Amino acid sequence: MFIIYFRRLSGESLGSCSKDELEKIEQEIKLSLATVKARKNKLIQEKINQLKLQEKNLTNENAELIKTREMVKNLKLSNPPKVEPEAAMEGEETPMFHL
């Protein structure tokens, strides 16, 4: 019985169906299609929401990284590395070599 019903829903073995049976099958197919479309739309909307949240998180992370980069840049500009002048010319003794 189920096999016959499934075949009819899939479009097979419709030759022996009455008009009323065909209309019933059509309505069942429409209902099934509406259910499938609703489920698909729900999944798409969930994915959109997930991606929007991911975008928001990445935007926030990017803003924090930009702030950090600027802070490091400003720190380097305000505290440049101290370069020691050359202690002595070649051949001269430096305090480091005295015992």
Question: Key features?
Answer:
99 residues; mainly alpha; rod-shaped
Would you give an account of this structure?
The chain is mostly helical. It has a domain at 38-71. The protein contains two helices and no strands. It has helices spanning 2-9, 19-78. The longest helix is centred in the middle third of the chain and has 60 residues, at 19-78. The model has no long low-confidence stretch (mean pLDDT 84).
Oligomer status? single chain
Percent of residues in helical segments? 55-70%
Listing every helix as H and every strand as E from the N terminus to the C terminus, the arrangement reads HH
Number of helices: 2
- Strand element count: 0
Structural class: mainly alpha
Biggest sheet, open or closed, and with what strands and sense? none
Beta content: under 5%
Q: Given the C-alpha coordinates, what overall shape results?
A: rod-shaped
Please tell me how large the radius of gyration is.
Answer: 38 Å
Low-confidence stretches: none
Task: Quote the average pLDDT.
Answer: 84
End-to-end Cα distance: 107 Å
